[in-house]
Specification:
Radius of gyration: 27 Å
Distance between the termini: 41 Å
Oligomer: single chain
CATH topology of the largest domain: MetI-like fold
Shape: flat
CATH architecture of the largest domain: Orthogonal Bundle
CATH class of the largest domain: Mainly Alpha
């Protein structure tokens, strides 16, 4: 090692000296060997097991999709069969379902509620998390623990009081219910934003204030871009919950005027227990597809944001 001559600087594109190049190759080979040595001998087995579990989870979705093209009589008799010439009905189930439940109206309400709620949750809770992290007072500590405590309170404990209060405040519409979702979605979101905000160096914010930024400008121009991974993760988690939620809208919304997709699908149940299974399967497919597409587009940000919010700081 003492005989190796290392030049002070190496220009871009210039070849390494032979002795230095040999050391680099030896180091890379050793590193690769140690990396392979640490590889678990059971990694292939775990891959097979997790692949089987993934297929099992996909089976219900596949069954719903297959049965959406079958006559409702054959859905009850043999739900696991592939559509044949006698059982296949084309797009009739979809057209009947859309007409019966007013699908497009329900879809519009679901979009308004989901997008509006997610936007308000991210905006308010990210500000709250940043405030709690930077302002160390008794009030901020109490606010943080109240948000954390709200995560463990069962919904069934508060749903009747919630329904009465929402009715008194006239929140039984797509805009009013956004306030309710903000209250129920704030706990997890504040917890994640607080965890991530602790990892942001305060020197960055101090430099912005020295440059003349007020707190609002500092938040939107400096802090918010740094919180982007957590914002995306919170958006995905909250959107999946709000889009598929049935119980809260059924308690709060005026169902004679406003229906979300989960509520509208329930209207396919007729009297004496009769259910139009074909139309219901078709509407379930239309309800599942948008949120699956949204999840597939944004799935790579979920683990990144959850780990950042729960571990950092």
């Amino acid at each position: 090692m003492s005989n190796v001559h290392t030049p002070d600087t190496i220009q871009k594109g210039e070849a390494l000296p032979p002795d230095v190049e040999a050391l680099v190759k030896a180091s890379a080979k050793k590193k690769g060997f140690s990396s392979n040595a640490r590889k678990s001998p059971y990694s292939g087995l775990w891959t097979i097991i997790l692949s089987i579990i993934s297929v099992i989870y996909l089976i219900p979705i596949v069954l719903v999709f297959i049965n959406s093209f079958k006559k409702k009589v054959y859905i009850n008799k043999n739900p696991f069969s592939i559509p044949t010439a006698n059982t296949f009905v084309g797009m009739d189930n979809y057209s009947n379902g859309i007409e019966k439940i007013g699908f497009f109206s329900a879809f519009g309400n679901s979009v308004i509620i989901t997008v509006g709620s997610v936007f308000v949750i991210i905006l308010c809770t990210s500000m709250c998390g940043w405030y709690i992290t930077r302002v160390k007072t008794f009030f901020s500590n109490c606010l943080y623990y109240l948000c954390v405590f709200s995560m463990i309170v069962p919904f069934q404990m508060v749903m009747f009081t919630l329904a009465k209060t929402s009715d008194w405040l006239k929140l039984g519409n797509p805009i009013g219910i956004i306030v309710v979702y903000l209250g129920f979605g704030a706990g997890l979101a504040v917890f994640m934003f607080c965890g991530f905000a602790k990892s942001i160096p305060i020197e960055i914010e101090e430099a912005a204030m020295i440059d003349g930024c007020n707190p609002i400008q500092t938040y939107f121009q400096v802090v918010m871009p740094i919180l982007r991974p957590t914002c995306i993760s919170v958006a995905i988690l909250e959107a999946m919950w709000i889009w598929n939620d049935y119980l809260l809208p059924s308690l709060v919304l005026d169902k004679t005027k406003y229906k979300t997709i989960p509520i509208a699908i329930q209207y396919l149940k007729g009297g004496y227990g009769s259910v139009d299974m074909g139309a219901m399967m078709a509407m379930l497919v239309l309800a599942i597809v948008p949120i699956i597409i949204f999840y597939l587009i944004c799935q790579k940000y979920i683990i990144e944001g959850v780990v950042s919010g729960a571990v950092k700081g």
